[in-house]
Amino acid sequence: MIGFLHTVRTLASRALGALAGLAVLAMVALACGNIAGRALGSPITGSYELMGFLGAVAAAFALGSSQLAKGHVAVTILDPYLPKTARRLLDALGALVGAAFFAVAGYEVFELARFMISTGELSETLRLPYYPFVWAVSAGCAVMALVLLTDVLLALGPQRPAAPAAVREKPADGPAAREKPA
Questions:
Q1: What DSSP designation does 182 have?
Q2: Separation of alpha carbons 109 and 168, rounded Å
Q3: pTM for the structure as a whole
Q4: In whole angstroms, how far apart are CA 147 and each of 102, 104, 120, 127?
């Protein structure tokens, strides 16, 4: 089961991470196009709204892949002083609290999108519906919850022994590594 969850979380996080990267590229293109348009006297209408939509998608979609890369802030000042079992339990507890938070946030944001559909809420300038972007944020929260839930199971599961140092270390690369001894 953990293997299946690990595969699903990795694939979902990478897919959303790639889409987050595309959203950032779209933001850069939009900003450059708007700057050029302003210089020519014709800025892109609704660029402020589009930047907000794309920024929300980029931030939400990057959550899971950032967690996989351990790119979020973690306070580990006490780790050297705690036994390994206590560290694993604290890691599991932190991931569990985070998973619960993002699961609830994802659900509430999903419900907000449903409310926006029922009211027909549209953006002010471009008259675009908000709900697809709100659903995207909900999906990002759901994937983050899945990643954190899997982190809980990994922290509490059986620990594999560390590989020997010779296996972990990569051989040096470059001209000095390829020289033959005299």
A1: -
A2: 42
A3: 0.81
A4: 10, 14, 33, 35
Query: Three-state SS for 157?
Result: coil
Instruction: Report the percent of the chain where pLDDT is more than 90.
Output: 75
Extract the tokens encoding 164.
Answer: 């020997």
Query: Which residues in 121-136 are b (16+ Cβ under 10 Å) and which e?
Result: eebeeeeeebbebbbb
Q: Please give, one letter per residue, the 3-state secondary structure of 73-129.
A: CCCCCCHHHCCHHHHHHHHHHHHHHHHHHHHHHHHHHHHHHHHHHHHCCECCCCCCE
Residues (pLDDT < 70) of the chain are 159-182
Of 62, 67, 48, nearest in space to 139 by CA: 62
Report residue 79 as tokens.
Answer: 């780790």
Cα torsion 66, 72, 78, 81 to 10°: value is 10
The whole-angstrom separation of Cα 95 and Cα 114 is 28
Angstrom CA distances, 63 to 18, 32, 60, 116, 156, stand at: 12, 26, 6, 24, 22
Q: Tell me how far the alpha carbon of residue 52 is from its chain's centroid.
A: 18
Position 108, amino acid:
E
Q: What pLDDT was estimated at residue 34?
A: 96
CA distances for 41 relative to 33, 85, 107, angstroms: 12, 64, 43
Using CA atoms, how far residue 134 sits from 56, 57, 66, 99, in Å, is 8, 8, 20, 19
